[in-house]
Specification:
By secondary structure, this protein is an alpha+beta fold. Strands 1-2-3-4 form a four-stranded mixed beta sheet. A hairpin with a 2-residue loop joins strand 2 and strand 3. The longest helix is centred in the C-terminal third of the chain and has 23 residues.
């Protein structure tokens, strides 16, 4: 992580203003920036939005590989879809983990959210945004996975690094596997530490891409 990225992440987490208000986003050129960077977090124009998701997915895949757990990225499963839209929205699993539970494969679906959305109306509760995102993913895909003899694992995280319960359970099990295969204590904090850094690295790409050049 560069010095600019590190400073930008610190400002975001401490809610220190970093963007001029009412200036048009230099990436999408459709919306105005807010001083705390919330538009930058949600702007779906590249670079950044998909990069953050894919970066975390790739790091998680590498962690599984190092743990000796067989998994495939962007695996076509032919049943993950939005129930309200039918097969027109079929999509692959972010990660397909083979033989994860009782011989069944697990579809891991990643989603990242901001804990600051709706802050003025609802107040801040640590981890709440990630738990809500997890619940939405379960409602959307768990039934289809069960009907097709797969396990569904929603992997929800927020931009501050909080993980929803299912993600914590998943990483805890992965960490146990690494620990059992590692003769040094290094593996004990490796999984959560590396994943947390990946989340911040992906977020930094979104924020820095929209910084005025004079602030870089």
């Amino acid at each position: 992580m560069s010095a600019v990225e590190y400073r930008t992440i610190l400002k975001y987490r401490l809610m220190i203003p970093m963007y001029p208000e009412d200036e048009t986003c230099p990436i999408c050129r459709k919306a105005c920036m807010d001083k705390y960077g919330e538009h930058a977090v949600h702007c779906k124009e590249l670079p950044g939005f998909k990069y953050r998701h894919d970066w975390v997915r790739d790091v998680l895949g590498d962690i599984l590989r190092r743990a000796g757990i067989s998994a495939k990225k962007e695996a076509p499963v032919n049943f993950l879809t939005d129930p309200t839209e039918g097969r027109s929205t079929l999509r692959p699993a972010d990660l397909l983990v083979f033989g994860w539970a009782g011989g069944k494969h697990a579809c891991v679906d990643l989603t990242g959210v901001s804990p600051l959305v709706g802050l003025r109306e609802n107040g801040f509760v640590a981890g709440l945004a990630a738990r809500k995102a997890e619940s939405k993913k379960v409602d959307k895909h768990a039934k289809a996975c069960a009907e097709n003899q797969h396990v569904f694992i929603p992997f929800a995280f927020d931009t501050f690094g909080s993980l929803a319960p299912e993600a914590i359970n998943f990483l805890t099990r992965v960490q146990r596997v690494i620990h059992s295969n590692c003769s040094t204590p290094k593996g004990q904090g490796f999984v959560f530490g590396r994943l947390g850094f990946a989340i911040q690295k992906g977020l930094a790409a979104q924020l820095v891409a929209r910084l005025p050049s004079v602030l870089m």
